[in-house]
Amino acid sequence: MKQAIVGALVSAYILVVAGGCMREDIQTPSELTAIELQDVITKNNLHRVIVVPFGSAPPSTVDQTTGSVFSFSNGFVHVSGSLYSAYNLQDLAAYNIIEIAIMDGFGAFIKEEKALILFVK
C-alpha cells in the first residue's frame, strides 16, 4: 500500500513538472500587432478600419460600407471594401485615428466618424 501511494505521488509530481515544460503559445510580431490594434479599436470605440499604402494620404471620404466589416486572424487583418482581402500586419508601417466623412452610395454625406487608418508597406 505504501508503495502505491509513493508511486502515485511520484507520478503526480512528474505530470506537474512535465506540464510546466509544455510548449506555450508563442505569438508572432504580427499577432502582437493585432492585439495592440484591437485594443486601440476598443478603447476608442472605433467601428471602421481603412487600409492605405504607406506614404499616401488617407481618404477624406469613404463609402458607408468601406472598412465597416473587419476582423483579425493569425497576424492578418481582413477589411471590407479594400483592394486586397487581407493584409499581413507584418507590413504595417504606421496607424492613426482620424475623422472621416461617410458617404452613401450616391455620394451624399451621411456623417463623420473616427476611423482607424492602417498604413501598409
Features:
121 residues, alpha/beta, 4-stranded mixed beta sheet, 2 helices, 28% helix
Number of strands: 7
Give the CA-CA distance, first to last residue: 68 Å
Give the oligomeric state of the chains in this entry, treating copies of one chain as homo and distinct chains as hetero.
single chain
The low-pLDDT segments are 6-10
Radius of gyration: 23 Å
Structural class: alpha/beta
* H/E series: HHEEEEEEE
Shape: elongated
Which percent band covers the strand fraction? 35-45%
Specify the number of helices: 2
What is the helical fraction, as a range of percent? 25-40%
Q: What profile does the largest beta sheet have?
A: 4 strands, mixed
Order of strands across the main sheet: 1-7-6-2
Q: Overall mean pLDDT score?
A: 86
Structure description:
It is a single chain. Helices cover 28% and strands 36% of the residues. The protein has two helices and seven strands. The model is unreliable at 6-10 (pLDDT under 50).
Write a brief structural summary.
The chain has 121 residues and is α/β, with parallel strands linked by helices.
Secondary-structure blueprint of this entry?
Elements: H1 2-20, H2 29-43, E1 49-53, E2 61-63, E3 70-73, E4 76-79, E5 86-88, E6 92-103, E7 109-120
